[in-house]
Design goal:
Elements (H helix, E strand, L loop, with lengths): L21 H26 L7 H33 L1
Length: about 90
């Protein structure tokens, strides 16, 4: 019986250590307020899945949406300021 061997070098991706880089950790840290605000919004929406939303639920969802929008605004302003500072 003959053994069949690959004629080409094995093509594999380089091993990944599985840890995020410093740049990725910095990006996560910058976006953490937005991530937390989105989690709060999702929690508020989940609470109303199986029952009609009452006035308190609507208020909770509205406030959570406002927090998400404020966090997005803050990130956008920070990035714009950073870009303007780099351009100067």
């Amino acid at each position: 019986m003959e053994h069949i061997a690959a004629l080409q070098v094995t093509v594999t991706a380089p091993p990944v250590d599985g840890e995020p880089s410093d740049a990725e950790l910095d990006a996560i840290e910058r976006e953490l307020p937005l991530i937390l605000a989105e989690v709060d919004l999702l929690d508020a929406q989940i609470m109303t899945i199986d029952r009609p939303a009452n006035e308190l639920d609507e208020r909770r969802i509205r406030r959570a949406r406002n927090r998400v929008m404020a966090a997005r605004r803050d990130i956008a302003n920070r990035e714009a300021t950073k870009l303007a500072g780099d351009a100067a």
